[in-house]
Amino acid sequence: MEVHSFLHSDTETYTHVLVDAKNKQCAVIDPVLDFDAKSGHTNTADVDTVIEFVREHDWELVYIIETHAHADHLSGAIHLKETLGGQLVMGCHITEVQKIFKQIFNFDTSFRTDASQFDILTDEGDTLALGDITITAMHVPGHTPADMAYIAADDEKTVVFVGDTLFAPDVGTARCDFPGGDAKTLYHSIQRLLALDEDTVMYLCHDYPSKGRKHCPTTSVAAQKLGNIHVKDGINEAEFVQMRERRDATLAMPRLIIPSVQVNIDAGHLPQPEDNGVRYLKVPINALT
Q1: Which of 162, 180, 207, 220 is nearest to 29 (CA)?
Q2: pLDDT surpasses 90 at 180
Q3: What are phi and psi of 26, to 5 degrees?
Q4: Mapping DSSP to helix (H, G, I), strand (E, B) and coil, where does residue 74 land?
Q5: What span is annotated as the signal peptide, if there is one (predicted)?
Q6: With bands split at pLDDT 50, 70 and 90, how would you rate the model's confidence at 132?
Q7: Nearest C-alpha neighbor of 127 from the set 65, 82, 188, 81
Q8: Under a CB-based contact definition with an 8 Å cutoff, are residues 61 and 107 in contact?
Q9: How far apart are CA 275 and CA 188, in angstroms?
Q10: How far is CA 114 from CA 18, 72, 93, 121, in A?
């Protein structure tokens, strides 16, 4: 098993490439589409770097895995799929998120809330085969109802892709104030991750390093239990919920939440062009608190 991580510097998002080199197969987790909010322009430069990397090694892209519907960047899954193929994977509880945001954005009846935009829907305990690697889905709601972690294991090692549920120990944990989020639920999801073997490497979706530390795509269960500033050993559920809710009340909405969510709940598809050939995103006024 190999994992190669690519940092999208604008949103501090990690895209990971999980590889079975012997069988020349790979999966890409959480690809990013560049988006300039000031101009409304998209760009594929960063995801093209991942595409070129996969091509250079002559790997077959089997899966494009989204850990959840991101609120801080647009997904690059559609460009990746159109270029390299692969099946688009999302947790089945994305239907709950689609229903919530269909109302917020007042999408018409053509917007599907059955998750049929995705190729494979995973639920707790479902497995995907990537060569000799088994990828097991773990439902870890709290940040959103649909968050999934993915545990990848072969004969050599086990790693887990945690999405936004956990960050590096000096950064803490995901916010829970988006529609459908819940701090108590997140606490219990995190405890399930921390019950994995202590030497399990955790691959992060984001890193927002404290001053003096460089970006890093990984941490470990042991490091989280020892030093996560929000949820290390000794912090109970009540303490965590109080901290998380107080902190969330002080946070601004993510810079790209409005374009990101409406694109990502539709599997990364941009809106259809209107009769003038231009695509438009909607901005709900006073709808997000």
Answers
A1: 162
A2: yes
A3: -145, 165
A4: strand
A5: none
A6: very high
A7: 65
A8: no
A9: 48
A10: 28, 23, 10, 10
Confidence of residue 112 (pLDDT cuts 50, 70, 90): very high
Residue 274 CA to residue 216 CA, distance in Å, equals 42
Whether 210 has a pLDDT exceeding 90, the answer reads no
Domain extent listing, the chain: 2-251
Tens digits of residue pLDDT in 244-261: 999 999 999 999 999 999
3-state helix, strand, coil in the chain (%, to 5): 25, 25, 50
Residue 138 CA, chain-centre distance (Å), reads 13
- In single-letter form, the type of residue at position 41 comes to H
Return the pLDDT at 184.
Answer: 98
Residue at token pair 């689609």: 98
Instruction: Select the CATH number that applies to the domain covering 2-251 from these four: 3.60.15.10, 3.40.50.720, 3.40.1350.10, 3.30.70.2470.
Output: 3.60.15.10
Cβ atoms within 10 Å, residue 104? 15
Strand partners for 139? 148
Do the beta carbons of residue 142 and residue 189 sit within 8 Å? yes
* CA angle centred on 203, ends 259 and 144, rounded to 5°: 40
Q: Note the pLDDT of residue 289.
A: 73
CA pair distance 228, 263, nearest whole angstrom: 32
Q: What residues contact residue 182 under an 8 Å CB cut-off, 6+ apart? A: 141, 142, 176
Q: Locate tokens 């059955």: which residue?
A: 114
DSSP string, 105-133: HT--TTS--SSTTSSEEE-TT-EEEETTE
Show the tokens assigned to 66.
């989204």
